[in-house]
Amino acid sequence: MVLTSTKIAYLGPQTSFSHEAALIAFPNSVLIEKNSISQVFDSIEKNECDKGVVPIENSTGGSVPFTLDEFVKGKFFINKEFFVEIKQCLLGNSSLKNIKKIYSHPQGFSQCNEWLKKNAQGIELIETTSTSKAAELASQNNEFGAIASEFAAKKFGLKVIENNINDDKENSTRFVVVSSKKNEEKLGTKTSIIFGVKNEPGSLFNAIESFKTFGVNMTKIESRPLKKKKWEYLFFIDFDGNTAKSKVKKALAELNKHCVEVIVLGSY
């Protein structure tokens, strides 16, 4: 049972998809709005909040670099992952033919690019800091529209002019619950890690071969620039299994032999 006093930080503003995700994951907790992903992590580090909900990957837009960069600090763990279907809608208080301006976050526009080409020729597109802000602006004038969620429409008293206008109708975002405490080792069917290798021939091959050697199924690998040194990288990996399993322990032990650093983000 989740205590009502539990404080959960999320990337705001209210009615954003991150807010919606936080409500899904923690319907009975106190939700604390933050202005950036780094502020979510900072609030956990300072013990202002117990956990945080942040986006880590979108099915069309790829990984969220701000989230990945926070994990490099090695102070946070992934406790859970879940997926939220992203349905962008055209909101307003008029009809499409009467709209002169459409507001949205840059990602909102990019996710609806094909729909805009076909249906919004001649309409001015104006970027905002969030889809929630776009909905707020659209509520101020009948000639304004917004690309945002149905959730935002309810808050700002807008009607849904067109529903699910995403180019990718299966668009979804992977969110993770983060905290300063890791799950028990035996929990979870998936593990995430970060590692770095020496900048020399065969170093990455030798590192990831550890997973093949011990029969661990690697499901994702992604690189991020190492900010301290130019043209060197850290690698983010997801694989099946938890760190309590014998073959996973052996794979990680072998991996460590070929790496300058390994950060285990947890099994979940």
The CATH superfamily of the largest domain is Periplasmic binding protein-like II
Compute the separation of the termini in Å.
18 Å
Nearest-integer average pLDDT: 91
Q: Biggest sheet, open or closed, and with what strands and sense?
A: 6 strands, mixed
The CATH topology of the largest domain comes to: D-Maltodextrin-Binding Protein, domain 2
Strand content: 25-35%
Q: So how many helices?
A: 9
CATH class of the largest domain: Alpha Beta
Question: How many domain modules?
Answer: 3
Work out the radius of gyration.
21 Å
Overall form: elongated
CATH architecture of the largest domain: 3-Layer(aba) Sandwich
Counted beta strands: 15
Q: What is the succession of H and E elements?
A: EHEHEEHEEEHHEHEHEEEHEEHE
What structural category arises from helix and sheet content? alpha/beta
Helix content: 25-40%
- What are the low-pLDDT stretches, counting only 5+ consecutive residues below 50? none
